[in-house]
C-alpha cells in the first residue's frame, strides 16, 4: 500500500494544502509547531475518523475538538492511496452535522463504498476494514507517535494480540478471534445475569417469581371460590324447596296480591325500559371502555418531558445565537485591529524599530568618534616639545650652550608638530562625522519614519508601543474567539443530544396516540370523560338490574285481565327467599372479585414451567459461551507459545542492531515486552530502562510486530529518534532504509540530523518541507 497525496482542505492549522508522497522513504521536515503531528493525525483521521473505540454508539474522541479549524464551516480533506493495483480516493467531512465518507475508484470516479466493510455504530464504510486494520492496531503498530507507547493498555493490547494470533494461524481456517469473542460476550450481555432485573434472564426470573406469588394468590382465591360455590349450591337447593312450598301456598293470596303485583309490574316495566335505553348507550360507548385517566397522566408526562427538552433546546439555540453574534463582534474587532496596522505586521514593525534604534546608536557613536591615535600622539609630541623648551629656559640642560640651543630648537619644533597634528586630527574627525551622518545614517532613519508616516524618534516610540498593545489586544480577542468556538461546539453537541431525545419522546407519544386512535392528548382526555360516563351508566344499569331481581323475587306467577301470564306473587316466605338471593348474589360477586384479573392456577403453572425452561436455556447458553471463551483463550495461548519465539527473535535482532547491547526480548501473552539483561540474563521490564533505551525497545517492537501484522500499511514515525545517540540513530535509519524497499516510510522530524545521516548512508529519500 502506498499513500500518494494528502489534500488538506481544512484541518487544524492547514487550509487548502496538498502534500505529495513517494514510494520508499519520505522525510517530512518542519520546525516546531509547523504541523507535523497535524499531518500525521490527518492521515489517521482520513482512514478511521475520530471515534472512540469500544462504544455502542458513535462517540467522538478528543482529537476531533483538538484539530477542528477555527472556521467551523469546513473540516474536511481527501487522501489518495494505491493498493492491489487500484488507486482509491477517500473524501471525508469531519463535521458532526455533515459527518460523511465517500470512497472512490480514483481512475474511474465511481463510488465504491459498498465494496468495504460497514460499521453500524458510526454508520460508515471502513476503508481498511477488509485488511483487518483497526484504529487501535494502527496507532499501536504502524503509526508511531512521538514518545507515546499505548500498546500496553487494556483493550488495546488485547486487540493487537488477537490480530497477531489471527495472522499466525497456520490451520488454513480463517478464525476471527476478536469477532468470535465479541459475539460471545455480546450474547452473554444480551442474556445478562440473574441479578440484572432488566436483562433477559433477569426478566424471566422476575416474571417467574412474580407468577409464583400470583399462583399462591390464585390457589387461595380459587379455594375460596370453591368454598363459596358450595354455599351457593346449598342456598339454591333451599330456595327451590321454598319456591315449591310457595307455589302450593300461592293460590290463597292471588286476589289479595293482585294490586301489589300490578304495582310491582309497573316498577319492573319502568326499570326494564330504562335498562334497555341504558344498554343501547353502553353498547354504543363500549369503545371508550379502555381509556383511563392514569394513562392520560402518563401521556401528559411524556408531552411535558418533550416540552421541557424543547425549552432546553430553545435556551441552547439562544446561547448559540448569542455566541455567534459575540464571535462576529470579535471578528469585527480583530479586523479593525489589523486594519490599524495598515497592512504592516508586528514582526516587520519590530524589525524596523530595532533597526531605527540601532542606526540612532551608530549616529551617536559617530558623533563621539574621533582620530584617537593621532590626537594622543599629537598631544604627547606637544607635551614633550614644551617640556624640552622649559628645561632649556631653566638652564637644567647643563653649562653647554650648544645643548641648550639644540634642546630649545627641538622642543619648539616638536610643540609645533604636535599642535599641527592635533588640529589635523580634530578636523578629520569632524569631517568624517559629517560624511557618515549625511550619506548613511540619517537617510536610513528618515526612510523608516517615512514608511510609517512619522516625524521623529519619539513619535516612532509612541507608535511602536501602540502597535505592541494593539497586538496583545488582538491575541486576547483571538483567544476569546477560540473559547467561544469551543463553547459553540459544545452547545451544538448538547443540542443534538437533546434533539435526539426529544425526537424519541415525541415518536413515543405519537406511537401511543396512534395506538389509542386519537390525534392528540385533548381528544384522549375527551374519551376519558366518556369512559367515566360509561362507568357511571354501568353502575346505574347494574343497580337497576339488582332492583329488578329483588322485585322479581317478591312476586310469583299470575294472570292479567286478558289472560296473559304475570309474575308469581310474593310467597309467604319471600323474606327468606330474598335473604337467600342476596346471599347468593353476594357470594357470586365475591367469586367474581376473587377471580378478577387472576388466571387459572393450571395456566399459571404452565407459564411457570415455560419460564423455568427458558431460564434453564439461558443458563445453558451462558455456560456454552463461557466454555467457548475458555477454548478460545486456550487456542490463543497455544498460538502465542507457537509464534512467540519467532517474534521474540525478530524484535530481539532489531533491538540488538540498534543498541549493540541488548540481544534478547520476550513478549508474553498479554503483549507486554521485556528485555534480557546482558549481565545477569534476567528479564527486565522496558519501563526499567533509560528513556532513550525504552524508546529503542518500543521502536523494535513496532518494527517487528508491524511487519508481522501488516506488510502493506506505510510505517509512519513522528520524531522517533529524539532521545537516540548518534550511533543508535544511524543503525535505526539503516533499518528504515532497508524497510523502505518493501513498504512506504513516512518520517517526521524537526532536526536536519536525520537528513545528514541519510546522505552519509547514501540512502534514497523524498523530502517535504512544511
Furnish the topology, listing elements before pairings.
Layout: E1 2-11, E2 14-20, E3 25-29, H1 36-48, H2 62-66, E4 76-83, E5 86-93, E6 100-105, E7 118-119, E8 124-125, H3 135-140, E9 143-144, H4 154-168, H5 177-191, H6 200-249, H7 258-284, H8 293-340, H9 346-368, H10 372-393, H11 401-451, H12 457-515, H13 521-553, E10 558-559, E11 565-566, H14 574-595, H15 601-659, E12 665-667, E13 673-676, E14 683-685, H16 691-709, E15 715-718, H17 726-740, E16 745-749, H18 753-761, E17 766-769
Parallel strand pairs: 3-16, 3-17, 9-15, 15-16
Antiparallel strand pairs: 1-2, 1-4, 4-5, 5-6, 7-8, 10-11, 12-13, 13-14
Helix pairs in contact: 5-15, 6-14, 6-15, 7-13, 8-12, 8-13, 9-11, 9-12, 10-11, 15-16, 15-17, 17-18
Which characteristics define this entry?
five-stranded parallel sheet; Rossmann fold; elongated; five-stranded antiparallel sheet; 5 domains; 770 residues; 18 helices; 10% strand; alpha/beta
